[in-house]
Amino acid sequence: MIHESSSRNRNRRILALVLAHCGPVLLSGAMIASICPGVVQAQDTNDWFESKVRPILVEHCYECHSGTKSKGGLLLDSKLGWSQGGQSGPAILPGDPDQSLLIQAVEYQTHQMPPKGKLTDLQIDTLIEWVQKGAPDPREAPILVGGMDAQTARNWWSFQPLPDPIDTFGSEWIDQQIDAKLLALGIVPCPTADARTLARRMSYDLTGLPPSPETLQEFLGTAPVSIAEDRFGQQIDSMLASSDYGVQWGRHWLDVVRYADTAGENTDRPVVNAWRYRNWVFDAMNRDMPFDAMVRHQIAGDQNTSEGIIATGYLAIARRFGHDIDKDMYLTYEEMIDNLGKSFLGLSIGCARCHDHKYDPISAKDYYALYGILASSKYSFPGCEPKGQPKDMVPLLSPSQIETLRKPWQEKADLAKQAKESQQASLGQARKYLSELDPTDRIAILQADVSEGAKVPFDSQGGSKTIDVQPGEWIQLTVSPKGNHGADSTMVQLIIQAIGSDPNADNSVDDNTRVWSSDALVDNFSATSFQKLSPRTQAESKGVDKKGQDLRASWYYAESTKSPELLVELRTSNGGNANIRSWSVGELPSVFANVSDSPANVWTSLAAKSLFVHPGPERPVSLVWVSPIEGQVRVHGFVQDVHPAALDGVSFSVEHWKAPKAGEVFEQMAAILQTPILDPGPSPVIPEAYATVEGTIADARVHLRGDPEKPGDIVPRRWIEILGGDPLKDPKASGRIELADWIASHPLMARVIVNRVWQWHFGQGLVRTPNDFGSRGDQPSHPELLDQLAAQFVKSGYSIKQLHRWIMNTNAYRRSSSATAEQMLADPENRLLSHYPRRRLTAEEIRDSILACSGNLDRSYGQEHPFPAPATWTFSQHDPFNAVYATNRRSAMMMVQRQRRHPFLALFDGADPNASTPVRQTSSVPTQALYYLNDPFFHEQAAAIAKMLDTSKPASANVQSIYQRILQRPATDTQTQALLALVEGYEGPPIDAWAAAIRMLMASNEFHFID
Fold first, then answer.
1. Residue 613: strand, helix, or coil
2. How far is Cα 287 from Cα 576, in angstroms, rounded to an integer?
3. CA distance linking residue 47 with residue 58, whole number of Å
4. Which of 305-314, 519-528, 554-563 has the highest mean pLDDT?
5. Nearest of 983, 986, 988, 941 to residue 965 by alpha carbon
6. Number of H helices, E strands in the chain
7. Collapsing DSSP states into helix, strand and coil, what is residue 263?
8. Under DSSP, is residue 562 helix (H, G, I), strand (E, B) or coil?
9. What is the largest CA-CA distance in the chain?
10. Angle (CA) 321 326 332, round 5°
11. Which of 201, 364, 419, 472 yields a CA-CA distance of 20 to 30 A from 677?
């Protein structure tokens, strides 16, 4: 082989040399044949190509590289195809076989083409000669629309008009189409399934739940094996009328439209109002809203009704990308276009972002025509790391309705604002007075530092200082931070003791009998930040002296950075302990107290019934006592750091303010702050939707190679060319109304949704690629059936519930799932429906069934999830949002997160919320078994069932009760004995034994599979 290849290369070089120097006209056919075997004189290059080259390409290359099949992007059925080439570039360099990728591939130098076996030497030499001659090729490339030639595109089966509806259509006609194909292959279909099997099948199909005992009894009647036709139809209608129907079939649609409760960008922010769209889908399904109306609502409903605004959440919930999502909106528009095409039309339109579609008749201009429509709209903003909180939610009330709702509250808010402004004006005058006090009236009594963990007592008598006070003057203990703000919790005690001067005077008392102490502030601490306290005295228990003068001293908590500012903000819990109450301005500075009789272990240990202060950075905090008396006082107490942190502690000072009027000003400030201002309460909640509205109208430019930084030509907004190419009638609007009409009225839409409904009943559609009705998709197994179903669906007014009736009343739907060996051999994938396809429950059906069996299922519709308040969001790419919220509602109501999927949904193959999920996958992995062994939720539900058992009845009766509840059938004698043996042999209390038996049944295949 090496010798033969070398020989070909040598002959190739000789031929090239001769052609270059002599020209082909100087060589006879015999001469050429002697130089390169297999080469003949080409009297007509077209005839030579057609007779020698084209047959090789047709036989060995067209299978993978012609028409809509272009592996590696390469087409070899035209000159344009090989000259443009595929992913590796042009396939042929005319005149240069050595550098031509096609020659390298057929010689197995790079790729090995054709892969099924190498060409003969003669065939390879022919291709080499063709390339050496300049690759003459008379084949004109067909006119292409995207990646499909125009003729094929015009005739493509899924683009064709629907047939006229026939009068004989019905469930029997559907069976005739199915049975005819079975008969043609000699396949005998299965008989009808038993009634209990049909009851479970129908209940799970329509509601996603097991049939209740009452429903099962109604279904079975007196015939446990078969079921009458009229009763079957009645049960279908009964289940279609259930609110559970909308949840089950709405969840199917949410799979397709990639519903999620988070945005998907790098912080995966919550989408607060997405639930409204979810519930709208459930409600629309329950109402049997015509599906064409559902389409119009989801694309352009904002221009009709408030309900339609909610429906446009379909577009708004598109995934957001990157860090600053505004900069990556082109990716969100791609995601919208991709889902729009797949969900409604079964076309992968998103593939045309970077270039014309490789396989389907969709051009890049088609893509950017739709891009312009979507980019001319405005979408609710979910927030992102650099831009914080969500915005642009769409109100669901008219401006007049909003005004009517807000007016009463606004009037109260205006009054409150005026009162607040008046209050601040009065406080401003008081603050001005305090700030202008004469500094000489501010007399220092003592000051000291408090190192970390230290306790520093103080006493004015120790400094032999006499403190003469007048009513209205005050004593102020101020704690200040030092450079490192080391003490965040500082215990303080301030005691003011009157000193008697004349024992015979009427207003005198003995020493140590009239004492005001800050310790007394702890009682009733939360009532107000300004207290008037009587002194401790043996003589005047009512806080008045013998002349009836008021001895109650006023105490205040204040910030004293510039002039005293009263602390007015109350917190009734600190450090997670409701016994720690505080007054502050902002977070700091603050005065706080442990009001309980026991120490509190929070960030540090706080002594019982004690008062503390916490200065803020460069913001001292003060405890102020205003004198009610004239006379001399002793000031003593202590300051103690109770939260050492190896820093530099605090400092404190005790001062006497000799300004009698200042006490009055303090009292005025307190009175002003204590005067209640009417609280208007929270503003009325205006219901809002995460939705889509009209935006800035503009046509889009093509992004060359999909790069928004390389704009190309402007593309007018219009419909897809192969589907009509209609231009906008109203270029001043975004075009979404017309886009919705184009989609809703096209036969593709009807075919696609009919196929989906068929798939959700039978596990696979008549077209097995429900998101792809293009050239790469599957051909329908029963084309006439699909088309007539779609035609009748349109005739019915786009009623999905009517589709259910037609499908579920067929013999094909009611067949047993017990396939025979002959059926499996003749039709291993059950494409022809000789038997019903057995299926496992979806993740939601499994969880809902567990809750239904335990009696804990909440069937009410959920609304907003308990997300943190948007104002608190600080999510980042390093700390994105993540949560799992417990609920007993149906699983379709659970919060669906994009970046971190719900553990249960991920484990049991829930839909991927990042992309359309047309078909649920089914896996079987060890972690599913571990779930049933260990999960607390599952164990709780099993225990709840066990508690419902009637212990006064025979154990065998409880076995029957369990079987009916979990599997909707009685236990056999063998099963009864086996379960009783398990319960009796279980080590533990009887209720635990029954719970274990229940868990075993709920983990069984019979519980998880529908026959």
1. strand
2. 48
3. 16
4. 305-314
5. 941
6. 35, 30
7. coil
8. coil
9. 153
10. 45
11. 472
Contacts for 401 with CB less than 8 Å, ≥ 6 apart? none
Q: Which residues contact 707 (CB under 8 A, 6 or more apart)?
A: none
Ordered DSSP codes for 6-74 = HHHHHHHHHHHHHHHHT-GGG--HHHHHHHSTT----SSHHHHIIIIIHHHHHHHTTTTEETTEEGGG-
- Residues near 926 by beta carbon (within 8 Å), at least 6 away in sequence: none
From the list 652, 639, 637, the residue with the least C-alpha distance to 456 is 639
Is there a cis peptide before residue 589, judged by omega within 30 degrees of 0? yes
**Buried b / exposed e along 358-381 (16+ C-beta atoms within 10 A):** bbbbbbbbbbbbbbbbbbbbbbbb
Distances (CA, A) of 24 to 49, 125, 298: 17, 17, 68
- Residues 391-401 have pLDDT tens digits of 999 999 988 99
Token duo for residue 175 = 């069976």
- Tokens found for residue 912: 């991927």
What digits encode the pLDDT tens for the residues 921-980?
999 999 999 999 999 999 999 999 999 999 889 999 999 999 999 999 999 999 999 999
- Among 592, 856, 705, 51, residue whose Cα is nearest residue 354: 705
Predicted TM-score (pTM) of this structure: 0.73
CA-based angle 246:252:258, to the nearest 5?
120
Tokens of 1009: 């599979």
Ranking 246-255, 492-501, 734-743 by mean pLDDT, the lowest is: 492-501
What element of type H or E holds 670?
Answer: helix 660-674
Q: Residue 567, Cβ neighbours under 10 Å: how many?
A: 24
Total residue length of the chain:
1011
Q: Which residue has the tokens 């559907």?
A: 174
Q: Are 346 and 773 in contact (CB under 8 A)?
A: yes
Is the separation of the CB atoms in 883 and 897 below 8 Å? yes
3 state SS of 971: coil
Give strand pairing partners of 494.
637
> Terminus-to-terminus CA distance in the chain, angstroms?
59
Output the six-digit token pair for 132.
């050496």
Looking at the chain, the whole-number percentage of residues with pLDDT higher than 70 is 91
Q: What is the pLDDT of residue 424?
A: 81
How many CA atoms lie within 13 Å of 162's alpha carbon, on the beta-carbon side? 23
**pLDDT given for residue 971 in this prediction:** 95
Amino acid at 67: G
Distance CA 503, CA 201 (A): 101
Tokens 């595929």 identify what position?
A: 86
**If you search the block for the tokens 């993540």, which residue do you land on?**
882
User: Residue 559 has what pLDDT?
Assistant: 85
Least confident stretch, 239-243, 575-579, 821-825: 575-579
What 8-state DSSP symbol labels residue 779?
A: P
The two structure tokens encoding residue 134: 């300049």
Tell me the backbone φ, ψ of residue 444, rounded to 5 degrees.
-75, 130
Place of tokens 């990639």: 258
> Please, how many CA atoms are within 13 Å of residue 930, restricted to the half-sphere of its CB?
6
For residue 687, what are its two tokens?
């219901």
> Which residues lie across from 457 on neighbouring strands?
638
Distance (Å, whole) CA 225 – CA 453 = 84
Amino acid in the structure at residue 6: S
pLDDT tens-digit profile of 753-790? 999 999 999 999 999 999 999 999 999 999 999 999 99
pLDDT for residue 478 is more than 90: yes
- HSE of 901, CA atoms in CB hemisphere, 13 A: 15
- The answer to whether 766 touches 755, Cβ cutoff 8 Å, is yes
Can you tell me the distance from the alpha carbon of 204 to that of 219, in angstroms, rounded to the nearest whole number?
Answer: 14
Which distant-in-sequence residues (6+ apart) come within 8 Å of 337 by Cβ? 349, 350, 353, 367, 370, 371, 374
How many CB atoms neighbour CB 423 within 10 A?
Answer: 14
Identity (one letter) of the amino acid at 397? L
Say which residue the tokens 């219009």 belong to: 718
What are 241's two structure tokens? 């009328």
